[in-house]
């Protein structure tokens, strides 16, 4: 370790916290479970402390507001914890996309303590950020107290950012499980959507995608493609099948900010030079994306209305997520030579009782992408190529890929809407 590095324990670091401090705690696969457990054992240390980080619903479940009645949280994604905190006046939801979060962390938020989960240092003293490079680089150099959680279980990965042991003030070592997700097995309906998406992807294209059952199905459907690359904010274990099938080959063929999966996937990252990691400032830079030939942004949504507006944040009258990287990837794809902005979704929800192709976005509903930002909308019933269609043409194309039982009602509603345009 570096000569200036002082070893401590998570408990001793928690004891340094004081009311009024802001503490950066990484999210997704970079979250430090030992640090949170130390806070739980000494909850008084969280009194008056604001915790900030980009935490994903369903992945990062630690409740920092539960530590002390006066702890606070600055969040960028809605979750049950954040919703409860907003109701009590202890949580702030900042509605930004990923580039906006970078700007917020770099110019607005004053971080007193930053926690970074890292791999053990190499023989030169450099530590890797393992499976999550996303936002830590945006706060690290500006933080007053920089703390390393050295996790022997974390893979050493190749990336554009690393931390030298001389560039921190304190460190503790604790082996801990890495937050992750289990792959969801696709069903026939998601495979049908995936097959339609695969028809839009050409050999040699560069892909961006997220995680989940539908994304797993899409990756499965691309196994016969060749010379694919990935430039994405996030990758899951399902991408390994594209490497093993020969669809993706070559050093740094996959560039991403975060990897999410299981233990076997994280072990694979340690030895596979196919993967290269970058922070959000690089993965979500629209200028980088816009020069990638054949860039395909493949994203999911909760609903699409007949004008082409895409909702990825709003369900049943409530905010349930955030914009994330969707806007910048969609924009970058539309600027890239041969690029495509693809929205893939199941045609229905609630066991077929609700259409996800809707006549019109409800009043007050959030719109994640404007009507001009999706080139293609894909369901299990087909592909709507919206790029050159009139307002009436795109409505008809979207009705055609809705579930059959909803098409007549959607057409009737559009006929009424169309008269009032």
Describe, in plain words, how this protein is organized in 3D.
The chain is an alpha/beta fold and 421 residues long. The protein has two domains: 6-173, Glutaconate Coenzyme A-transferase; 188-419, Acetyl-CoA hydrolase/transferase C-terminal domain (Glutaconate Coenzyme A-transferase), CATH 3.40.1080.20. Helices cover 28% and strands 21% of the residues. The chain contains 14 helices and 25 strands. Helix 13 (391-400) runs antiparallel to helix 14 (404-419). The radius of gyration is 22 Å and the shape is globular.
Q: Secondary structure elements and their pairing?
A:
Blueprint lengths: L5 E2 L2 H6 L6 E3 L8 H9 L8 E3 L19 E4 L4 H8 L3 E3 L4 H11 L4 E6 L7 E2 L8 H4 L5 E6 L12 E2 L5 E4 L14 H11 L7 E3 L4 H9 L7 E8 L3 H5 L9 E7 L2 H9 L3 E3 L2 H4 L2 H4 L5 E6 L2 E3 L4 E2 L2 E2 L2 E2 L6 H10 L4 E5 L3 E2 L4 E2 L1 E2 L17 E4 L2 E4 L5 H10 L3 H16 L2
Parallel strand pairs: 1-10, 2-3, 2-6, 3-4, 4-5, 6-8, 8-10, 11-12, 11-15, 12-13, 13-14, 15-20, 16-23, 20-24
Antiparallel strand pairs: 7-9, 16-17, 18-19, 21-22, 24-25
Helix pairs in contact: 6-7, 13-14
